[in-house]
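Predict structure. Chain length: 627.
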Amino acid sequence: MDYNKLKYEVLRQFWGYKNFRNLQENIIDSISFKNDTLCLLPTSGGKSICYQLPALITEGVCIVISPLLALMKDQVERLQSIGIEAEFISSELDDTEIDTIYSRCRSGITKLLYVSPERLTNTKFINEANEIPFSFIAVDEAHCISEWGQDFRPSYKNIKDFKEMFQLPCIALTATATPTVEKEIIEKLGLKNCEIFKKGFKRDNININILKISDKFDKIYNYLNLNKTSGLIYVNTRQEAVNLSQFLRSKGLNNVDYYHAGLSKNEKEKKQKWWQESNLNTLISTNAFGMGIDKENVSFVIHLNPPYSIENYYQEIGRAGRNGQPSYAFLLWNEQDLTKSNDILKSQFPNQKEYKKIITSLYSMYQIADYEYIDKEFQFDVKMLQRRTNCTSGKIKSVLEFLHLQEIIYLRNRNSPSSIELLIPYNEIENLPPSDAYFLELLLRNIIGLTTQKTHFQEDKLANKLNIDKSLIKERIIEMMNKNYIEYIDGDISSIRFLHPRDERRLLNSYWSDFKTIQFNKIKKWEEFKYFITNEDFCKMKLILHYFGENTSSNCNNCNICNSKKPSNHYSEKEEIIKILRTKPATKVEIGILLPHCSSEKIEEHLIDLLNDGKITIKDFRTYMIK
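Prediction complete.
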């Protein structure tokens, strides 16, 4: 089939679109013809299709470098759901699962293989890669390669060597890159004669409102009560998501729900579907929600608290107004928020002495000596590490997250599937005490794969299947583990696996240097975002564009700063108030929520004029209505 026809046929068959958006077709042509390519498209720009479609129309396997396991899983699940052969390799998979994936790649079944940048230096992976026909490399979140980029990831430097080793073309993709970061991406990935495709960051249909306010919950209630549209509310913690949802529901708003990473997979899917398929529902979420969102009719995004960088903020508000309709972004803040965020960042950054203490104590907890490697998963108790180090939970969490992202350790959070492995030969079970033999046979009959390999399972499902209380099941399994019949990791408790031999010198020197750079970047980006929040002189969109290297002399005329400087159009604003009151009676505060560009003083002035003109009347001393 002709290349152009094939391109459009694949687009229609798998994604259901007739035409490409923005620069997509040019980007797809560039990498399909094996040119090194840099793609800078803002959130909602359709970056993923720019490498996923070429992967289907070129021979071989596209290797996708992605910084987060959650992002890999999300992309692979989405691709598989539309019939595309995609896989990911991560430390949570066992050797048998990984070998199966390699086999599918060698045979040409898999078209997209997602891996972390750390995987590129793994000896087994390199050996397997020599047998896999790759088509090109796609580097997702390419800004991670820059020391000055959002979410700096030192291991992204491995990509250039891998690219040169296998002589592969490369497409690098990002939504957030300053000119400095853009230059670093090209240099550090070794992109040659690179074709650059860049879409401007300006979003004309998003009205940005940075509002200094103390009573945030009431402000959000008033807005949602008067706006029967679909939106997103971002909060910093899981508890805030739950609390705000409960508050709004207690006030009679039933079209809201919460979402966070601690929910089960089924709960997440159910809530996401409830929100995705509605024109009225609002989801309150931590930043765990957002990856791969493809919902056009999001009319507003509210931030209950300031995020920690312009990149995060811009990416999150970019989920509004994808249908081109006017949309609103509200960031609610006060001085207490800024102080709290300052304190949180400081409490998460250990000094070198504390960093060393956390590292050495972590290995000592499991009696792992220098250069020793133990291929085993351990239950992990962060409180025990706190007691050993006298460091705050924030500092410990920062170090553990760093080690996890560098694939030095694999940290499995609570509420994960449990794992179980049979340690004794199957034919010796009959020689055990009868009650033990009976229980092991029961497990083997009901947990698929346990006879031959380590297997993941869920105790509650097993308990329901056997009609036995979950606590009794766990009690007996632990008893079997204590007798060395099985290896068991309880998914209700965090667990840890060490992925490499302990290397004290490297951990305390070069890795400390990388860790320090990452923490410094977080603080620097927060200071930049604080300026963005508190500045009352410049157009908010202009500040964002300037940050991303797009210098412009024109203002957006939509943000709260621009609106505050506009000469008042009394007739237009009065008509807007009458339009609101025709829908239903409203208080001055509620009218202000719907007219964020109009100051409280102006609204009061207009209401007095409309009362004097006899066009409206006042009800119960505070609510206005059409006369």
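Summary: The mean pLDDT is 90.
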